[in-house]
Amino acid sequence: MKIGFVGLGLMGSHMATHLARVHDVTGFDIDATKAESIVGAAMSDNILELAKGSKLVLMSLPTSVAVETVVLGLIEGLSPGSAVIDTSTTEPSVTLRVAAALSKRGVDFLDAPVSGGPRGASEAKLSVMVGGAARVFDRYKPILELIGSSVVRVGESGAGEVAKLVNNMIVGSTFCVIAESFALGMEMGLDPELLYDAIKGGWASSAVLDVAAPGMINRDFESGGSVDILFKDIGYALALARSHNVPTPMTALVDEIFKTARASGRGSKAQHVIIELYEQLLGKTISDTS
Questions:
Q1: How far, in Å, CA of 55 to CA of 233, rounded?
Q2: Are 42 and 95 in contact (CB under 8 A)?
Q3: Of the residues 97, 160, 193, 207, which has the maximum number of CB atoms within 10 A of its CB?
Q4: DSSP per-residue string spanning 185-240
Q5: Spatial distance between the Cα atoms of 255 and 231, rounded to a whole number of angstroms
Q6: How many domains does the chain have?
Q7: CA distance 2 to 57
Q8: Is the whole model's pTM more than 0.90, yes or no?
Q9: How far apart are CA 250 and CA 30, in angstroms?
Q10: Max alpha carbon distance in the chain (Å)?
Q11: How far, in Å, CA of 159 to CA of 95, rounded?
Q12: 239 and 106, same structural domain?
């Protein structure tokens, strides 16, 4: 199948590479240097031409605005019977507008945001949460299984994005409580490596813990997703909750913690960098107790 892939960042580059092992893939990114990270795919410098040559277009983009802008750029080049799959974390309201616009042209659409971070993307072990018509999901599930180890349809258009926002509410809260709890352990003199070893086999175990704890201990705040991206996603979740009058006090607190990290100049760093906020308050770093 001829597949176009728009957005070749930390996640998209890996997904496009996996797809290119099986299908004829053409990529596009506004940063032309991203082409160097794609293996086995051709590159286009024009999304309209990419759309004309593709039966299916996937997107992995940083914001809802980017998603809507790209779809507007693609739509005239897409032929009836083709399809678009958005793997980005997008506001459900934008997803519904995009789906409606594509439907008018006879183009199918799935919102299929992913979770698992760059490591999950590189290993094709992402969790894919899909919204859209069942017939479209059945047709393109084999494509999504090339990038994810879990591919689940959760409902109609927009449902996949709601599931991803729920996912990121949990992820954001977990990053925060890990930083807070390790700060307490640090203040009480616990060795953070021993603390991690002691708790990782119990109920505190999680994929987030397995990223955050080693990252904090090794002072690696470059690898993985960023404070900026998760802050954006938490904002989408809060907006959705507010529009439906659903109380989300814990998520609101997470939003403030990530906002503080951004205000302190840490927005581009990995999410577990929020440990530094506690370190500043306590006047010591985790490494002091190692």
A1: 30
A2: no
A3: 160
A4: HHHTT--HHHHHHHHTTSTT--HHHHHHHHHHHTT--SSS-BHHHHHHHHHHHHHH
A5: 6
A6: 2
A7: 9
A8: yes
A9: 36
A10: 64
A11: 9
A12: no
Reported in sequence order, the residue ranges of the chain that DSSP labels E, i.e. its strands, are 2-6, 24-28, 42-43, 56-59, 83-86, 108-111, 114-115, 126-131, 148-155
**216 alpha carbon, distance to own chain's centre:** 21
Ramachandran category for residue 187: left, alpha or beta (phi over 0 → left; psi -120 to 50 → alpha)? alpha
CATH of the domain at 117: 3.40.50.720
Q: Which domain holds residue 264?
A: 162-289
40 and 104 in a single domain? The answer is yes
The pair of three-digit structure tokens given for residue 5, joined into one six-digit string = 């892939």
Based on its alpha-carbon atoms, the radius of gyration of the chain, rounded to whole angstroms, reads 20
Name which of 23, 26, 21 is nearest 6 in CA terms. Answer: 26
Q: Tell whether 223 and 121 lie within a shared domain.
A: no
**pLDDT tens track for 68-85:** 999 999 999 999 999 999
Residue 67 CA to its chain's centroid (Å): 13
Active site residues: 164
Q: Which residues of the chain have pLDDT under 70?
A: 290
CA distance 64 to 10: 17
Per-residue pLDDT, 195: 97
User: CB under 8 Å to 241, separation ≥6 — which residues?
Assistant: 247, 248, 251
Token pair listed for 253 = 């607190």
CATH at 213 = 1.10.1040.10
Of 124, 157, 190, which one is at a domain's C-terminal end? Answer: 157
- Does one domain contain both 213 and 189? yes
